[in-house]
Design a protein that fits this description.
Elements lengths: L2 H6 L4 H11 L8 H14 L4 H6 L11 H11 L1 H8 L9 H4 L19 H14 L3 H6 L10 H11 L1 H4 L4 H7 L6 H8 L18
This protein binds a DNA duplex (12 and 12 nucleotides) through helix 2 and helix 5.
Length: 210
DNA sequence: ATAGGGGTACCG
DNA sequence: CGGTACCCCTAT
């Protein structure tokens, strides 16, 4: 190897290796406690959301841990789960004993617990639609409808399954048949529709009768 | 920021 | 020494 070569070659394996030796951090084994943090974080945030798990204060990982470290740990500890979630091409060489750990199953997007819509919420949703149309997040954000605990997306989903005839008025395919999506008349048409809106029961303030 | 693949320290 | 758990690099 001449001086000329040393100065000119840029991306050979050898030079990369030298850089690696300089930056490589000391090896930190995963203990049971830190592994439990990862498992809990996976149940809450889902597989693949490594940064979210790492930065969650509820899970105090070692100071030098990085999001990639979490991914690598999951990959070696639950090889079968990793294969299930990412495909067989992602499979890599692991100890057989680790395969038995897959009694546990993980999800990429953990499901929130289901909260059924009450009749009161449904009524409020319809009132909200009357006011805002399909601006679901505005309905959810308007205090008067008491739907602040719902996401706009959740309200859209509820409307779609509970009131398909209303929801159809907002779908693009339905719109494209007649008017442009920015046509202001679409809402007017919707407002004129004869669907029933029942007023939510209003709790009377405490009275002095009795 | 993450997925995927290559590299390496460490253990028996 | 072989094999693997942990670390690193990079395309997307």
């Amino acid at each position: 190897m001449t001086e000329l070569n040393q100065n000119t070659y840029i991306s050979t394996g050898k030079q990369v290796d030298n850089i690696r030796q300089d930056r490589r951090k000391t090896r930190q084994k995963w203990g049971a406690a830190e592994t439990s943090l990862l498992v809990e974080g996976l149940f809450e945030h889902g597989v693949g959301n490594w940064k979210k798990i790492l930065t969650d204060p509820k899970y105090p990982f070692g100071k030098d841990r990085t999001a990639v470290d979490l991914k690598d740990r999951f990959r070696t500890l639950y090889p079968n789960e990793y294969e299930n979630l990412y495909g067989k091409k992602a499979k890599r060489k692991t100890k057989k004993t680790n395969n038995d750990q897959s009694m546990v199953t993980f999800e990429k997007k953990p499901h929130r617990p289901k909260n059924k819509f009450t009749p009161e919420e449904d009524n409020s949703l319809k009132l909200g639609i009357e006011k805002y149309g399909n601006s679901w997040s505005k309905i959810a954000g308007d205090q008067q409808f008491n739907l602040m605990h719902r996401r706009g997306q959740d309200l859209r989903d509820r409307c779609r399954v509970a009131y398909p005839e209303i929801y159809a008025r907002f779908s693009k395919s339905r719109k494209s048949k007649h008017v442009g999506k920015s046509d202001p008349h679409i809402l007017k048409k919707f407002y004129a529709l004869p669907f029933q809106i029942t007023s939510p029961t209003i709790q009377e303030p405490e009275t002095s009768n009795i």
